[in-house]
Amino acid sequence: MKFLVTGAAGFIGFYVAQRLCEQGHEVVGIDNLNDYYDVNLKLARLDVLANLPLFRFIKLDLADRDGIAQLFAQEKFNRVIHLAAQAGVRYSIDNPMAYADSNLVGHLTILEGCRHHNVEHLVYASSSSVYGLNSKVPFATTDSVDHPISLYAATKKSNELMSHTYAHLYGIPTTGLRFFTVYGPWGRPDMALFKFTKAIIEGDAIDVYNNGDMRRDFTYIDDIVEGIVRVQNVIPQSNPDWQVESGSSAQSSAPYRVFNIGNGNPVKLMAFIESLESSLGLTANKNMMPMQAGDVYQTYAEVEDLFAATSYRPNMSVEQGVDNFVQWYRAFYKK
């Protein structure tokens, strides 16, 4: 098949494009290569993808309405995996307009492309941050997600609502994936593992929020990619018997689904740091900090519906995943 992968120079998009090409699919990847983090890392990912004969890259911004419309018209994609977005909870507090352009306008341009060109399945990135003020654990797709606490989370919730509307109005099968703290080799420099590793190696202190009293459902990149590639083959079907009053909010009478995709095993932040220290053979200097605006105390994915749909459970241990990242980091940065 022919796939569009948005955010192909990004962390998850890079791996997904690679996996699809390995399976024999043709992949067109787009990215605007913005400078939210080091562009050289994005270019290095693209250099790897450039060696795959089934991959083509086009530099394109999601907010370019005409450009995206022309792309869909020319390429005639079978399926779309939409992973591009302006990322970052904390960054959204100081730079809100960037999220409107990329996450709202950009998502709409993709929906419109799917609408007008008979795309058989749109899989898109949502986020565990949509659970916001929810304190019930584990987070289940049947829980309320009406109280986000960052603009980033609000845009991801909006993406789910927009996708449901297009599934209902135009019959476009859409599946949203709520990612839980993705980490691993080739990861984003704004994420905790990357920042911690760089600081510890260079002898700088790391900022540990809420005095280390936090839990995260750290999910290794290979587990995320396996889930995405399996889900794209699970195309949602209309269900005329579904009702708002009694049905799951993760489904609909329209061809619409939402899944959590996480490890299902929250880890204490301090235990995560200890795993990193062990892998590096170094001890971190820690700045104990209060909770930062937009952060939540805990994330914890309930993934039974994902397993039921795909027969797959994430299974990488944090210790092994962290060690894999450290080996990549030392090799890539020669440190």
Proportion in helices: 40-55%
Average pLDDT, rounded to a whole number, is 95
The separation of the N and C termini measures 40 Å
Q: From N to C, what is the helix and strand string?
A: EHEHEHEHHEHEEHEEEHEEHEHH
Strand order of the largest sheet: 3-2-1-4-5-6-11
Number of helices: 11
Q: Taking Cα atoms only, what radius of gyration do you get, to the nearest Å?
A: 19 Å
Summarize the main sheet. Answer: 7 strands, parallel
Query: SS-based structural class?
Result: alpha/beta
Shape: globular
- Share of β-strand residues: 15-25%
Outline of the structure:
This protein has 335 residues and is an alpha/beta fold.
Detailed description of the structure:
The structure is a single chain. The protein has helices at 11-22, 39-49, 65-75, 89-94, 96-116, 151-170, 192-201, 221-231, 269-280, 304-310, 318-333, and strands at 2-6, 26-31, 55-59, 79-82, 121-127, 174-179, 182-183, 206-208, 215-216, 219-220, 256-261, 267-268, 286-288. It starts with a strand and ends with a helix. The chain is built from eleven helices and 13 strands. It has a seven-stranded parallel sheet with strand order 3-2-1-4-5-6-11, sandwiched between helices. Strands 7-10 form a two-stranded parallel ribbon. Strands 8-13 form a two-stranded parallel ribbon. Strand 2 (26-31), helix 2 and strand 3 (55-59) form a beta-alpha-beta unit. It is α/β, with parallel strands linked by helices and 335 residues long. The model has no long low-confidence stretch (mean pLDDT 95).
